[in-house]
Amino acid sequence: MDEKRKLLKVIENRYSSKHFVAEHTTDELTAVCPTTSLPDFYSIRIVYEPDKYLIELKSLKFYFNSFRNEGIYHEELINKV
After folding, report:
1. Residue among 38, 40, 41, 39 nearest 27 (CA)
2. Does residue 51 have an active-site annotation?
3. pLDDT interval class at 1 (50, 70, 90)
4. How many angstroms separate the CA atoms of 49 and 20, rounded?
5. 40 is catalytic
6. pTM beyond cutoff 0.70
């Protein structure tokens, strides 16, 4: 498992009997362009239908923050996330 993914935590979905969509949008995802070494800033939207668990939002923020100093192209980053 990718070391960064270990940062992600889940919490029990106390409303798993209900059908709903969870949506998380942030512009706090940043990385470094490996070609220019300049920072890249991203907006990301995650939409999912939870079952027994939900993504814990603070851990998601730490996960996104783990890419801050990584040299990675956006095409690769979106596939990693």
Report:
1. 41
2. no
3. low
4. 6
5. yes
6. yes
Domains in the chain: ranges and CATH? 3-80 (3.30.1130.10)
- Owner of token pair 């960064």: 4
Tokens of 71: 């040299």
Tokens of 75: 């095409």
Contact present, 64 and 23 (Cβ < 8 Å): no
Q: Which of 2, 27, 40, 51 is catalytic?
A: 40
Tally of helices (H runs) and strands (E runs) in the chain: 2, 4
Q: Where is 24: in which H helix or E strand?
A: strand 22-32
Q: What are phi and psi of 31, to 5 degrees?
A: -155, -175
